[in-house]
Amino acid sequence: MNRLLCRSLRWVVVMWALLISAVCAAASVGEVTLSIGTSQIEREGKGQPVVKGCDIAAGDVIRTTANGHVHIRFVDGARVSVRPDSVLHVVEYRYDPADPAESLIKFHLEAGTVRGISGLAAQVARDKFRLNTPLVAIGVKGTDFVTQATANSAIVLVNQGAIVLAPLDSACRAEGFGPCGTSRSRELASSMNGMNGMALVYRQAASEPVFQPVNSLKGTDKVTPILQQERVGSATTATAVADSRNPGAVMDVLAPRSTLVWGRWATNAVPGDDLTTSFMEALSGNKVTVGDGYYFLFRNENAPNFLSTASGVTNFRLQSGAASYRDPSNTLVAASINGGSLSIDFGRRTFTTQLAVTAPSIGTQGVAASGTIDPSTGIFLSTTTGARVAGAVSLDTSQAGYFFSKPVGNGVLTGATLWGR
Residue 14: pLDDT above 90? Predict the structure, then answer.
């Protein structure tokens, strides 16, 4: 009886693995490098949970729940972050490293928020890259920009380079690629005189897009704060954020660069580390706050400093992370962070945090810690036993990050996290 039960269970496990591999084994154009919470890939009418390492194919639809967050690295080096409550369709992704000028890339954000860092394809074949939202088409003619869209509005702020925004109509169809060159198309470039702090805005039923000061958008519509920006790496790559989750809402446009960056001392990243950049790259314009010998948290010291006036409790949301497990044989294996929480009480100068971290040989482990925060520096350290945590808050208090370590069995679980409001 026990032998029959074991065979049955083994068969169930094998069939489940085959189902997962069926979804994750199509012609790959990208790979999931981080999956937090609950998300799903839909392919040919079938849906399966998103797991780290799963391949992404053209035609896939990525759906995240309220706690879902997925990072994807594409074959040309592009990166996309799909935020909670989002639906992103990878409509087309053709890339030949031998002939990148013939690339063909299109995304459609049905709902929610995405952020992308352009790869070689979008840089070389700008006329063949398109990001559609329900209302507008966005073509890349530059490097660094933020886009926010709802069913009724779209806002674009350019930090560096240029973009072209055009309302979808008979002259600018969703089926097309590249920037639309219609009478209603508008270009926004960081090099335009007098355009510093200006946004390109289009609202449904308007005759054409208009330029407005970003600050003037506040108070004119229902304002919903955008999710804090995650690390984007090189400033020479294009960044896009779009949100179409709340019809009728215009969201606050924030600076596109993160004020916290994780750097590593090692030349090469360890297994499970899709978070860090090189130490010297992270050092550029930043200063180290905390570090453990591998992970170093860098902070932009030129940001507005609100540490001395911060008060009350802030509950941060997990944006990204990296984790590894060093097993008893001293071998490092990749681990994944499945979710967590971070609460900082600036008034009482305390913090509490917890994570769920999974590695193949140890299953899911809880990492919990609490401790104190220095209000003058924003650096916080754990005072509890079990897990060691050390981190810092950005000077404007919009972000936080920490590294952690926890003994598990005869090994140790280590990693780093980045959080936003």
Answer: no
Q: How many domains does the chain have?
A: 2
The whole-number pLDDT of residue 10 equals 52
Which position has the higher pLDDT, 400 or 23? 400
Q: Which of 252, 280, 309 is the last residue of a domain?
A: 252
The domain in which residue 66 lies consists of 27-252
Examine the pLDDT at 241 and tell me if it is beyond 60. no
Residues 154 and 294 in one domain: no
145 against 367, higher pLDDT: 367
Same domain (yes/no): 109, 228: yes
Q: Are residues 295 and 371 in the same domain?
A: yes
Contacts of 396 (CB under 8 A, 6+ apart): 259, 303, 304, 305, 306
